[in-house]
Amino acid sequence: MHNITNKIIDDTSSGLVVPAPEVRASTTQICGLYPFLTGVETPTIGVPIGRDLFTGATVCSDPVSWFSKAKLIANPSLLVTGRPGLGKSSLVRRMATGLSAYGVTPLVFGDLKPDYKNLIKNLGGNIIELGRARGSLNILDPGSTRKQADRLTGEARQHLISDIEGRRLTTLAALLTLNRANKVTDHEEAILATALQALDTKHNEPTLYNLIDLLSAPTEAVESITLSKGDTEKYFESVNPLLRSIAALTQGAIGDLFAKPTTTPIDLTKPVCINVSGISESDEKLQAAVLLACWSEGFGSIAALQALSDAQLEPQQNFVVILDELWRVLRTGEAMADRIDSLTRLDRSTGVGTIMVTHTLKDLTNNKTSGFAERMGYFAMTGVPQAEINGIRELVNLSNAEAKLLTSWSTPETWNQQKLAHPPGLGKILFKIGGRPGLATQTVLTQSEQKIHDTNTRW
């Protein structure tokens, strides 16, 4: 140690500072080197992501491992945010690949670009095509989940049926809210709930067209909710706004995508990617509606399978669900935050991790969405512009040094792009848990991953 110190002093006097050699070990092994110590411990439990930007130590991270094994977070969920093109999707794909090797099945409920189709295909998973003239999703048909409920008995069966009915009602109300740009009232929701129950007694696979027919002819059950007391005029005053909105779901901007029988049911025995990349970027309303419907269908399938696992009728499975482009749904209206929360909420005991991806935390800083974001287990952030730092600080405890680091990843250091092989923040991620110091990490991809992860193939 004396020789090392003398060398540093000698080199300093000549204008050159040579860094001291770094050693990583436990405090028991190198306690005698104090005070020449630095806290460089990084998590080694989870999917290997890359190296710490300051120490070079390996960084491992994923929401499932950090919750179930490392005990670093209280909720197996991750929110990934940052500017486009800096590596958000590559990070998520790396986590999905690693978790798949650990026995955790990745599920992508709505791939808009597509960012995950090739990965899921290479993992031996199923690709479900959804979109106009590509595939349909009947939002009123419980499908396989109802068959799974029939395998249960007693209280377990009733609980699953209640979950199926509640999720279906929430999905329909969410789509109506999105399409009409106005909330579904509590009275309208009660009418829908009653009508759906009546619909199940008449049809094995009900559709939106069947729902329109049922509401168009007054029935005793629905009449009792409208309080029309046999007055046909009062009845239609109550149901006509709903009828118009439901009809718009079958013929308007969304088309009949949700009114036809489901083309391909979800099979959770393999990785799944619901590919909706055929929907045009200009179809913002349809994109948001499809994402909502896919999330509902996917989480409903998981809940049904977990109910069978609890009854020891199916083996226990663990999943990581990837919800990309979250901002597209949130920007359709403040009322959508509660709908998303109710559709995607799963108890920690169900063995499901969640990764949500959005471009900016500004989408999560209003009264409705801030609580939604605060329930996240932790955050992963790529480069962001200076204007977004204050918004991020409303949700994440950022130090000045961390804020400066995030903005430096967002802005090129020179106008001469020929001197830059990549954007300055490409693959750089800051992991944050609560008030703990962040982990600045450089994602490192293998050659095979680089081929699969190329999202600029058209260029």
Description:
With 459 residues, this protein is an alpha/beta fold. The protein folds into 3 domains: 32 residues, no CATH class; 257 residues, Rossmann fold, CATH 3.40.50; 127 residues, no CATH class. It contains 18 helices and 11 strands. An 11-stranded mixed beta sheet has the order 2-1-11-10-9-3-8-7-4-6-5. A hairpin with a 5-residue loop joins β1 and β2. α7 packs across α11, α7 runs antiparallel to α14 and α9 runs antiparallel to α11.
CATH class term of the largest domain: Alpha Beta
What is the CA–CA distance across the termini? 54 Å
User: What portion of the residues fall into strands of 2 or more residues?
Assistant: 5-15%
- Annotated CATH homologous superfamily of the largest domain: P-loop containing nucleotide triphosphate hydrolases
Please identify the structural class as seen in this structure.
alpha/beta
For the largest beta sheet, what order do the strands appear in spatially?
A: 2-1-11-10-9-3-8-7-4-6-5
The ordered H/E elements are HHEEHEHEHEHHHHHHEHEHHEHEHHEEH
Query: What's the count of strands?
Result: 11
* Residues in helix, %: 40-55%
Q: How many helical stretches?
A: 18
- Global shape: elongated
For the sheet with most strands, the description reads: 11 strands, mixed
CATH topology of the largest domain: Rossmann fold
What is the alpha-carbon Rg in Å? 26 Å
